[in-house]
């Protein structure tokens, strides 16, 4: 068995267990509390959450009734050569392509935006999990060679949690003092195409992740019969 396949399978099983833990918590705390994601990034989230470190992925899971908010960042740094805004956008788009390939998702919309002075890729895409449609509202950030993903996985008809995510959670993202857009670029290593690493990270991170989601919903549906 090659290393990449073993990593994906390990991530798959760990994610399944973590989903059972996450959905065992009822409801969510409306009061927001500050949470440090890394030395560079912090955010405010509801006070009831689950954290785990799984195969190099640091994950925060917040249950929002029947939906879930996930914040993920990787311990592995990207070595993609990113010289300017256009190459950063290319990295983001190919990272997203990796996600869409593995989730079999259909892109709804995307935009290149700024939050507190730094560039994000904001996107939404639709997936079908065990016969149920889900909308993924996704914000992707690359900062100091580390990738950060902020996702709300919601029902298409959801408005309350989507509004909560867009108006309360995302605007609360803060960065360490002194960081600028230059910290999103990497000119240390030439001839390292951004799309290769971006797509690889998206694929490895989400292949097992999606498998866990699918199995969780299938098993939960069977138990309810």
In a few lines, what is going on in this structure?
The protein has 225 residues and is an alpha+beta fold. The termini are far apart.
Name the features.
225 residues; alpha+beta; seven-stranded antiparallel β-sheet; 4 helices; 10 strands
Q: Give the assembly state of these chains.
A: single chain
Q: How many β-strands, per DSSP?
A: 10
Gyration radius from CA atoms, angstroms:
17 Å
Strand arrangement across the biggest beta sheet: 3-4-5-9-8-7-6
- Categorize the overall geometry: globular
From N to C, what is the helix and strand string? HEEEEEHEEEEHEH
Helical content (DSSP H or I, runs of 4+): 25-40%
Query: Unreliable segments (pLDDT under 50, ≥5 consecutive)?
Result: 1-29
Largest sheet: 7 strands, antiparallel
Number of helices: 4
Provide a descriptive summary of the structure in words.
It is a single chain. Helices cover 36% and strands 34% of the residues. The chain has 225 residues and is of the alpha+beta class. A hairpin with a 2-residue loop joins β3 and β4 (57-64). α2 packs parallel to α4. 32% of the residues are buried. The model is unreliable at 1-29 (pLDDT under 50).
SSE map:
Blueprint: H1 3-23, E1 32-36, E2 41-46, E3 50-54, E4 57-64, E5 67-74, H2 85-103, E6 106-115, E7 118-129, E8 132-143, E9 146-154, H3 160-169, E10 174-175, H4 194-224
Antiparallel strand pairs: 1-2, 2-10, 3-4, 4-5, 5-9, 6-7, 7-8, 8-9
Helix pairs in contact: 1-4, 2-4
């Amino acid at each position: 068995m090659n290393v990449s396949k073993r990593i994906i399978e390990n991530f798959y099983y760990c994610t399944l267990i973590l989903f059972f833990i996450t959905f065992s918590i009822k409801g969510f705390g409306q009061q927001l509390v500050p949470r440090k994601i890394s030395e560079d990034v912090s955010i405010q989230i509801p006070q009831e959450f689950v954290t785990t470190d799984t195969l190099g992925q640091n994950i925060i899971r917040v249950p929002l009734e029947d939906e879930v908010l996930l914040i993920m960042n990787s311990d592995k740094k990207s070595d993609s050569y990113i010289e300017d805004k256009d190459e950063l956008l290319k990295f983001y788009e190919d990272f997203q392509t990796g996600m869409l390939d593995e989730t079999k998702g259909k892109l709804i919309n995307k935009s290149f935006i700024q939050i507190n002075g730094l560039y994000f890729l904001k996107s939404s895409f639709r997936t079908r999990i065990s016969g149920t449609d889900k909308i993924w509202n996704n914000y992707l950030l690359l900062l100091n060679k580390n990738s950060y993903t902020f996702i709300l996985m919601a029902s298409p008809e959801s408005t309350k949690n989507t509004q909560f995510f867009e108006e309360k959670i995302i605007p609360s993202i803060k960065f360490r003092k002194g960081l600028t857009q230059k910290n999103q670029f990497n000119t240390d290593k030439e001839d390292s195409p951004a799309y290769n690493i971006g797509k690889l990270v998206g694929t490895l991170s989400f292949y097992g992740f999606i498998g866990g989601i699918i199995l969780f919903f299938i098993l939960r549906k069977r138990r309810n019969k």
